[in-house]
Hints:
The protein is an alpha+beta fold and 92 residues long. Helix content is 33%, strand content 28%. It has helices at residues 10-16, 20-37, 86-90, and strands spanning 4-7, 52-56, 59-66, 69-77. It is globular. 25% of the residues are buried.
Amino acid sequence: MNYKIAFKKSVSRDLRKIQKKQAERILRKIEDELPKKAETFPMLTGRFSGLRKFRVGDFRVIFSTIGDTALILRIRHRKEAYRSDISAINSH
């Protein structure tokens, strides 16, 4: 299945906090890899249950698959990726 990629508005705020070169690399990886195999990336557990993670170096792309769409919810450094309030991530 080929997934369409959609971004939640909060992702633009996340990207502004990342160096431009790094942000471009992350977006390129999302574009190249996520549409082809979004369902193969690891599922999260606990309070993030139902979401998936995609690793790009030290950054984590947190996303959800909804039908034929991969909805990118957050892009954060691995140290911060799972600390945020679940309501900020899961309200899509």
